[in-house]
Amino acid sequence: MWRRWGFFRQSKLNFIRLARLDSSPDAIGRGIALGLFIGFTPTFGIQIFLAILFAFLLRQNKVATFIGVWITNPLTAPIIYGLEYQTGRMLLGFPPLGSDQFVHDFSWSMGVQVGAPLMLGSLVLGIPVAIIGYSVTVRLVPSLQKWKIPRWPRKRYSGDD
Asked: What is the pTM of this model?
C-alpha cells in the first residue's frame, strides 16, 4: 500500500529516520528547526540543497535538517506559500492581486508585489514554526529513541525462482 501513496510512505520513513538518529535531542531539534525555517522560505525546488549546505556550514544534524525541509512538499506548498503571501501583503499594506494581473502585467513591479510579501511572510511565519519545531522535537525525541522500531524484513529469494 505504501508504494501507491508516496507522500505517506515518505512521511513514515522520515519519522523512522528521526526515531533512529543517534544524537542528542538538542542537536536533532536544532537540525529540525533549521530545516523547518528553510522549508518556509520561498525557494521551492532548491530547499533540500540549501538545507544541506546550511547544515554543513552551521554544523547541524544533516538528517534532521533534511527531515525538517519536508514540511514544504507538493501538498503543503500552496497552503504555506499562500499564508506567507497573505501575511506579508497585510504587513506591507499591499492590495491583493487579481488573477488577470498575472497574465497581462508580468514585470519587475509585479515581481516586487509578489516577492516582497512572500519573503516577509516567510520570515514572519518561519521563525515561530522553527522555534515550535525545536521545542516539540526536544521533548519528543527522548521517547522516540526509547521506542525500538524493528527493521522491515526483506524477502529472501532463492536462485531457483
From this structure: 0.75
